[in-house]
Amino acid sequence: MQSLTNRSKMVSNKEMSFVEKLYIPAILGGMGITFKHLFKKNNTLKYPEQTKVLVPVYRGQHVLKRDEEGRENCTACGLCAVACPAEAITMIAGEREKGDEDKYREEKYAEVYEINMLRCIFCGLCEEACPKEAIFLTDRLVPSQFERDEFIMGKDRLVEDVNNRIDITARQLTGKRGKI
Ligand code: SF4
Ligand code: SF4
């Protein structure tokens, strides 16, 4: 049957010749390819001692931003979750209590906000969908973990520290969806 992509190949069932049965030409061919690679430039980095220089538009671990007064920008509208093609974002909205005006910018806020970094494909669509400039992808690498649950990041790891703001201007100046 013809495949949709036209890339399928018919498998040959023909008998192998005597020379082919020796496998020596195939082994020598394979060793020749290995030998050629000995003289090529090594692209492997000795991570974590050596780290790769990332392009300014690199999209890594997200941050939930605060405004200049330290209040969380996110209003739990859910647009980022709807835009996410990987269904990596989940949230529960809460209503701001009286006295919490210095914590949350709007009357509605994200009580729970989670991103599953194992599902995320770092496309940046959540960032583009957000009307409140609340979520951005940064140049930080998602740290490696031993447990899958550790990759589900909640607000404790996503919201920026009020005293240690995360600078996202390099990506903003270069263009949100620039070339990588
Ligand atoms: S970067 Fe893309 S895949 Fe990851 S959470 Fe945002 S929209 Fe979803
Ligand atoms: S991050 Fe932005 S788009 Fe997502 S829920 Fe918060 S305000 Fe809405």
Fold topology:
Layout: H1 18-22, H2 24-38, E1 62-64, H3 79-83, E2 89-95, E3 108-116, H4 125-129, E4 135-137, E5 152-153, H5 155-158, H6 169-174
Antiparallel strand pairs: 1-4, 2-3, 3-5
Question: What would your notes on this structure say?
Answer:
The chain is built from six helices and five strands. It is an alpha+beta fold and 180 residues long. The strands form two sheets. Strands 2-3-5 form a three-stranded antiparallel β-sheet. The protein has a two-stranded antiparallel sheet with strand order 1-4. It has a domain at 62-174: Alpha-Beta Plaits. The radius of gyration is 25 Å and the shape is elongated. The structure holds iron/sulfur cluster (2 copies). One iron/sulfur cluster (SF4) is lined by residues 83-86, 88-89, 115, 120-126.
